[in-house]
Write a structure and sequence with these properties.
This protein has a single domain, classed as Electron Transport, Fmn-binding Protein, Chain A (Pnp Oxidase, Chain A, Roll), CATH 2.30.110. The protein is 15% helix and 43% strand. The chain is built from 4 helices and 12 strands, in the order H-H-E-E-E-E-E-H-E-H-E-E-E-E-E-E. A 7-stranded antiparallel beta sheet has the order 3-2-6-9-10-5-4, sandwiched between helices. It has a 3-stranded antiparallel beta sheet with strand order 1-11-12, with no helix packed on it. The chain has a two-stranded antiparallel sheet with strand order 7-8. The protein is globular.
């Protein structure tokens, strides 16, 4: 069984540090507001069910093999769709796609569920997960491991297909607002 666990089981945390309290959630969130990050929409499809969410918690893990980690709140529909399908697409948004980011973040209150996909043009690459046309980059992925991290699932993914464009501004999130960064 331990061969299936990809963790250093013999590693021990620093006991002095482990006994210290963490900062409050409020302090953590305030500090993270100053961390400029690219904006993505994570999408998935399971049969006829499509779901997506705006996310900034996406990170490249390795280039060889090509892997990403994507953190998704357990309480959103997309988490269940990703778990059921075993696939997701990371759509890295361009500056002109701020409205798509707001829709998938739930900032436009009257737009819910599948109606979110009326914003932007969507297609599929190889997994069946929706891929946003005009995104700066799309990473179509299979999920290879799922980690239970408090309020979120951490999906370790292998990239099966990519698309990119070589123009346009990047959409980032900083200090509670969307911003555009020229290339």
């Amino acid at each position: 069984m331990s061969q299936d666990i990809n963790q250093l089981l013999d590693w021990k945390p620093n006991t002095r540090l482990a006994a210290m309290p963490t900062v409050s959630a409020e302090d953590h969130l305030y500090g993270m507001r100053h961390f400029a990050v690219g904006v993505t929409v994570i999408t998935a499809r399971d049969g006829d069910a499509r779901a997506g969410l705006t996310a900034t918690a996406v990170c490249s893990v390795t280039a060889d093999p090509p892997r990403l980690v994507v953190f998704v709140n357990k309480n959103v529909m997309a988490s269940e769709v990703i778990l059921n399908s075993g696939a997701l697409c990371v759509n890295v948004l361009a500056g002109e796609q701020e409205e798509v980011a707001k829709v998938f973040a739930g900032m436009i209150k009257e737009v819910h569920g599948d109606a979110r996909f009326q914003y932007g043009a969507w297609r599929e690459l190889v997994t069946g997960a929706p891929s946003l046309d005009g995104a700066l980059a799309n990473f179509d992925c299979r999920v290879i491991k799922v980690f239970d991290e408090s309020t979120h699932h951490a999906f370790l993914c292998e990239v099966l297909a990519t698309c990119e464009r070589n123009d346009g501004e990047a959409l980032i999130y900083l200090n509670g607002a969307f911003r555009r960064i020229p290339q």
